[in-house]
Amino acid sequence: MIYYFQKVTLLKGSREVSAMYDIIRVCDNVYDGFYNEKCIIDFTIPKTNHAVPVLIWFHGGDLESGSRHEGFIGRLAAEYGVAVASADYRTYPDAAYPDFFNDAARACEFVWNYGQSTGLFNRYFIGGAEAGAHIAMMLYFNPVYMREFVMSPDLFHGYIFDGGHPTSHPAVLKERCIDGRAVRIDKSAPIYYIDTPPSAESDRPPVLITSAEHEIEGIGARNDMLRCAMLDFGYSPEKVERTVMRGFAHGEYRKKPDGNGSYPINRVFGEFITKHANKIVNNNDKTGTEDDFVL
């Protein structure tokens, strides 16, 4: 199914969203001590009396820049009750392929272990924007990075790919002295690993693929290609959602809040996460307090 989010005009049956939750921030947590200046996670957690879903988020920036400090994150937690673990990772020139994928897998392990030890999270989602979406795609399609930490991509309950390259990333091409505008599909490309149908016993997590109507570098078409490749290889159509943000330019819906301080993408992310986590019953629910969030 392909959805179209209309700018300004609310979709039928939708509602204005306002902040409903107080939040707690736990910042500057090092998830890899060897690279402690780069491998840092901030938690933004809604204060509730029960466990909540958590989105492990990887920022954009062409694998060359970017920051875990993104404005829409706090609103996602406050509006939808979804915790966000926003991670920095090594980028060029301090990294080389595939360092950023390894960092991301380690960040996921860190969040998973923290959630299991505290009981604060009941479902775990992975997502990213632009270069971060490219990273999230690779974690989903190539299990080798999760296996490094005795984990599987299928342990997680959903993935969000926002405006990312499913092909080889331009920064990786530049590392190889190839023009970044070139289109390559090799082992550095997430879509390369879509080559067999999911096994009968495999229950692959759902994915949400988003992009702007007015995209750059053919990203919209490449994301359509990603969806088609998944469907061609037998991924369930109900688990491959595609949303086009009409009226928006690349990344605009994450960077410009509306008059209420809400970001348009939050509704899309929030509804995807809550849809796949809304039937959770956690027998170890607990009220979040300041003491619960000490790492």
Indicate the topology.
Layout: E1 2-6, E2 23-30, E3 40-46, E4 52-58, H1 71-80, E5 83-87, H2 99-118, E6 121-129, H3 131-141, H4 144-147, E7 158-162, H5 170-175, E8 207-214, H6 219-232, E9 240-249, H7 252-255, H8 264-277
Parallel strand pairs: 1-9, 4-5, 4-6, 6-7, 7-8, 8-9
Antiparallel strand pairs: 2-3, 3-5
Structural overview:
The chain has a single domain (2-282), classed as Rossmann fold (3-Layer(aba) Sandwich). By secondary structure, it is α/β, with parallel strands linked by helices. α1 (71-80) crosses α8 and α2 crosses α3 (131-141). The protein has helices spanning 71-80, 99-118, 131-141, 144-147, 170-175, 219-232, 252-255, 264-277; strands at 2-6, 23-30, 40-46, 52-58, 83-87, 121-129, 158-162, 207-214, 240-249. It has eight helices and nine strands. The longest helix has 20 residues, at 99-118.
Task: Supply the key terms.
Rossmann fold, 22% strand, 295 residues, alpha/beta, 9 strands, nine-stranded mixed β-sheet
Structural class by SSE content = alpha/beta
The first-level CATH class is given as Alpha Beta
Spatial strand arrangement across the major sheet: 1-9-8-7-6-4-5-3-2
- The gross shape turns out to be globular
End-to-end separation in angstroms reads: 40 Å
| CATH fold call | Rossmann fold
Instruction: State the total count of DSSP E strands.
Output: 9
Oligomer: single chain
Say which CATH homologous superfamily is assigned: Alpha/Beta hydrolase fold, catalytic domain
Strand content: 15-25%
Low-confidence spans: pLDDT under 50, at least 5 residues? 7-15, 279-295
